[in-house]
Design goal:
Blueprint lengths: L3 E6 L6 H16 L7 E6 L5 H8 L4 E5 L16 H6 L4 E4 L2 H4 L5 H13 L3 E6 L3 H5 L3 H12 L11 E5 L13 H18 L8 E6 L7 H5 L6 E4 L6 H9 L3
Helix pairs in contact: 1-2, 1-10, 7-8
The structure holds 1,3-dihydroxyacetonephosphate.
Length: 253
């Protein structure tokens, strides 16, 4: 993948007014700044703020993503939002399999169905994988990551030019302010690239990317994006403040 991605996962952190304020400020800051033509900036607000943020960023350098989506297209599925509806809401991206959803019981099988549905709608799935603290303590991290990728991509057949992004998010560093070490990130990204090759042997690797997530901020962003096998970052806390996220964006050359 030649592009770089900076994806803001706002989780359930902002109310609508705050989401509008931060999206407006970021769009304004970016309108006055020249950014790398290969950089894609994506905001993933909650569902409630999606349409307002879509209006704000229309015509700007920012793309829109959802934080989840359901695999059925339509029907009696109370509370769910389909990939088609997400697409209609002007999203191009969707985060799937985030550890905060896995913790609530989302299975590999469900994530697999969601990826399939997202691709059918032409959305770019951002598939999160990563080990917990206990899994790492037991030396299971490689197996966990490989298993999550194999299961997520089982029988997935993307169209030749469809993009798939895997976000490596070690669960134990999310929201701690302390990112993983550079060598560990490099190693995990290599493992993920190999697992991608194994899972999608016929898919052109220029459409597959690996990004890192977990306590990314403006001080450590370059540690990760400067690695040859990491194409960007999925940012939680540090993306909630447009000025800080803008500082991160400016660090990408
Ligand atoms: P933090 O950047 O707050 O650690 O969150 C990472 C994350 O979970 C992004 O999806």
């Amino acid at each position: 993948m030649t592009e770089k991605y900076l994806i803001a996962n706002w989780k359930m952190q902002l109310d609508k007014e705050q989401a509008i304020q931060q999206a407006s400020l970021l769009a304004k800051l970016l309108s006055e700044e020249k950014i790398s033509k290969d950089l894609r900036v994506v905001l993933c607000p909650d569902f409630i703020a999606l349409s307002e943020v879509a209006d704000i960023i229309k015509g700007s350098k920012i793309a829109l993503g959802a934080q989840d989506g359901f695999y059925e297209e339509a029907g009696a599925f109370t509370s769910q939002v389909s990939m088609r509806q997400i697409k209609e809401a002007a999203c191009q991206f969707v985060i799937l399999g985030h550890s905060e959803r896995r913790k609530l019981g989302e299975s590999d099988e469900i994530i697999n169905k969601k990826i399939k549905a997202a691709l059918e709608q032409g959305l770019v799935p951002i598939v999160c994988v990563g080990e917990t603290f206990d899994e790492r303590k037991e030396g299971q991290q490689d197996l966990v990551i490989m298993h999550q990728i194999y299961e997520a991509l089982k029988n997935i057949k993307p169209k030749p030019d469809q993009k798939i992004i895997i976000a490596y998010e070690p669960v134990w560093v999310i929201g701690t302010g302390q990112a993983i070490g550079i060598a560990d990130a490099f190693y995990a990204a290599s493992l993920i690239q190999q697992s991608l090759l194994d899972s999608l042997p016929d898919h052109d690797k220029k459409y597959c990317g690996v990004i890192y997530g977990g306590s990314v901020n403006s001080s450590n962003i370059n540690d990760f994006v400067d690695l040859p096998n990491i194409q960007g970052a999925l940012v939680g806390n540090a993306s909630l403040d447009a000025q800080e996220f803008f500082t991160i964006i400016k660090k990408i050359k």
